Amino acid sequence: MSDTDYYELLGVSRNVNEKELKSAFRKKAMKYHPDRNPDDPSAEAKFKEVSSAYECLSDPQKRAAYDRVGRAAYEQGGMGSAGGGAGGFGGQRPEDVFSDIFADFFGGRQGGGGGRGGATRGSDLRYDYTITLEEAFNGKQADIEIPTTETCEPCEGSGAAPGSSPVTCTTCHGAGRVRAQQGFFTMERTCATCQGRGTIIKTPCKNCGGRGNVHAKRKLDINIPAGIEDGQRIRLQGEGEAGTLGGPKGDLYIFVTIDEHDLFERDGPNLYARAPVPFCKAALGGEIEMPTIGGSRARITIPEGAQTGKRMRLKGKGMPSLRSGQRGDLYVELFVETPRNLSSKQKELLREFSESCSETTNPEHQGFMSRVKSFFDASANAD
User: Fold this and answer.
1) Structural domain range at position 36
2) What HAMAP family does the annotation carry (predicted)?
3) pLDDT(150) > 60
């Protein structure tokens, strides 16, 4: 064993309080526990060191003696029992302190069986459901069928054959967990005989094989609220799998996916769409017709000289908000379509139009070309 100071081993100051000391010990014990470090032969020694340090410093009398004369008094047995019952570990039994830590390792004190009686809550279920954007706008009532488990009727969920009952486990005496002493430490494990239930079924129910539940399919009528968004879930309490041995049912979570739409993209309550505008209509101005997600039609006025990227807002034509019920907006982004597949006459007309254009007709193009000319002139002068 090293001569490292106990306070240094635990990473605390000499005026540490009981709560901080215990927290530091838990972190160190979890870090060096041999079960977490199977490939590190030094972990067990470090684990024992921090355990000894905590046993000393958690007891007020032992800590006072250690502060006076150091580790030697503690290791040579000169301090004896701390008096007043359990000794060490701040008045707790050592096995209780380590049970707290092992609970962190193995997921809690109750084990997989849920403690005395063995009744455990059923598992939660997930059901993926896909809808259209229109259905998300309007809301939807739907019938679904889910694979699940139900409480066994013949044994009423007990797992024991009708006319019999589960009996108390003789290994753990109904506790569901057993303790084993390994030198200085007391290890607590789930009872292997009853698997943590605390009871044993000697005569299993033939219908469920002792499980207390059976596989089944259940039909449900679900309500998809208007305004639901992609990825949101709906919780149906008590519609999950049946619990074992009479335990309560779990919950059903319906995860909603919304299909991509041909026209609209969604961002919260707002919708976005892109609308092509003929070249002439963008230049002269005019109107286009736009459908809305609610099924109506809206007329959009195109201003004279509209450019690609101009966004038009249709207030209240978006999606309903799931919380407030208020409608979002529909934003229509214009893009100017260049004419294609022109006839000879159309090309000739465009040439005449192009020759008649001036700097005021295409100001952005003229401004860009001026900047390009300035760039090349500056490069030529630099050479």
Assistant:
1) 6-106
2) DnaJ
3) yes
C-alpha triplet 111, 172, 47: angle, nearest 5°? 55
Q: Is 56 annotated as a binding residue?
A: no
Task: Tell whether 357 is in a known binding site.
Answer: no
The answer to whether 152 is a known ligand-binding residue is yes
Share of the chain above pLDDT 70, in %: 84
Same domain flag for 68 and 129: no
Number of domains forming the structure of the chain: 4
In a domain, 225, yes or no: yes
pLDDT of 138 strictly over 80 = yes
* Residue 151 sits in the same domain as residue 175: yes
d(CA 40, CA 28): 15
Say how far apart CA 109 and CA 175 lie, in whole Å. 11
Task: Examine residue 325 and state whether it is found in any structural domain, yes or no.
Answer: yes
Same domain for 211 and 162: yes
pTM of the model: 0.57
Say if residue 205 carries a ligand binding annotation: yes
Q: Is 191 annotated as a binding residue?
A: yes
Q: CATH number of the domain that 274 lies in?
A: 2.60.260.20
Residue pair 194/205 in contact by the 8 Å Cβ criterion: no
190 and 99 Cβ atoms separated by less than 8 Å: no
pLDDT in tens, 288-305: 999 999 999 999 999 999
Residue 261 CB neighbour total at 10 angstroms: 15
Q: Which of 36-45, 67-76, 88-97, 247-256 has the highest mean pLDDT?
A: 247-256
State yes or no: 208 annotated in a binding site: yes
Q: Is the domain of 303 the same as that of 250?
A: no
Exposure string (b/e) for 175-191, b if CB count within 10 Å is 16 or more?
A: bbbbeeeeeeebebebb
